[in-house]
Amino acid sequence: MAEPLLSVRGLRKSFGGVHAVDGVDFDLAAGELLALIGPNGAGKSTTFNMVGGQLRADAGTIRLAGRELAGLPPRAIWRLGVGRTFQIAQTFASLTVAENVQMALLSQDRKIYGLWWRAAGHRRADALQLLAQVDMQALGDAPCSALAYGDVKRLELAIALAHRPRLLLMDEPTAGMSPAERHALMQLTRRLVSEQGTAVLFTEHSMDVVFAHADRVLVLARGRLIAQGTPAQVRADPLVQQVYLGSGAMLAPAAAQGGRVDG
Ligand SMILES: Nc1ncnc2c1ncn2[C@@H]1O[C@H](COP(=O)(O)OP(=O)(O)OP(=O)(O)O)[C@@H](O)[C@H]1O
């Protein structure tokens, strides 16, 4: 693997007596799509939130291009080049599509974030260019509240890309989407990260998305990394099969075409 962009070592977090994340190590290279999977309660969100700074790690290091992120607040981590999309879309329904992107650009430029009306004239051309990257240039003047769900997710991606992150964290990016929409969004993500060399860490319950689009997969169970490798390696791993068989989910290629695994 090329020199990692993100390097995580000995990451731990407990809640009371629960070892939610119990000594996790992994690397992520620029341009790589890395999936973080595991049954419910495995520690995916906790890991994710420690990388993004929403949760403070009890122990361990999280280095982005050699810079320590552990202990920094989310805003500082964002400034260092870590973008994020959320499971529940974080857009302003009362603004137009273009204004939502302009708000992100305002924030990036350290202008006053709360004054949404200032967004209307701010870097509109740049906003439209970002929308073009996610094939939404025709929807710039549409109210955000009128968008179809798949379009909201694409808009979120444009917003996350507005400050050109080196690492993009995507929390269940395809939740609630139809199979066709899921693959379209991940293909778009792949195209954008290839063009820009962004690294992506994503949590995902839909195995079809993981096996079709991830370069590598990390499998967590009870806070520990039980396997990592290519989708084919992970799918063939007996321990992974055991963990998922307990949930009734199938990891065989045929079943992976449409399977959502809920833990
Ligand atoms: N704020 C919290 N307080 C107490 N316990 C927590 C908290 N957050 C997570 N946990 C516990 O830590 C463990 C890991 O939870 P986490 O949400 O990271 O798992 P997950 O893999 O993201 O699960 P899911 O797929 O259900 O979202 C679980 O046992 C959970 O109950």
TrEMBL record:
<keyword id="KW-0547">Nucleotide-binding</keyword>
<dbReference type="InterPro" id="IPR003593">
    <property type="entry name" value="AAA+_ATPase"/>
</dbReference>
<keyword id="KW-1003">Cell membrane</keyword>
<dbReference type="InterPro" id="IPR003439">
    <property type="entry name" value="ABC_transporter-like_ATP-bd"/>
</dbReference>
<dbReference type="InterPro" id="IPR032823">
    <property type="entry name" value="BCA_ABC_TP_C"/>
</dbReference>
<protein>
    <submittedName>
        <fullName>ABC transporter ATP-binding protein</fullName>
    </submittedName>
</protein>
<dbReference type="Pfam" id="PF00005">
    <property type="entry name" value="ABC_tran"/>
</dbReference>
<feature type="domain" description="ABC transporter">
    <location>
        <begin position="6"/>
        <end position="247"/>
    </location>
</feature>
<dbReference type="GO" id="GO:0005524">
    <property type="term" value="F:ATP binding"/>
</dbReference>
<dbReference type="InterPro" id="IPR027417">
    <property type="entry name" value="P-loop_NTPase"/>
</dbReference>
<keyword id="KW-0067">ATP-binding</keyword>
<dbReference type="InterPro" id="IPR051120">
    <property type="entry name" value="ABC_AA/LPS_Transport"/>
</dbReference>
<keyword id="KW-0472">Membrane</keyword>
<dbReference type="Pfam" id="PF12399">
    <property type="entry name" value="BCA_ABC_TP_C"/>
</dbReference>
<keyword id="KW-0813">Transport</keyword>
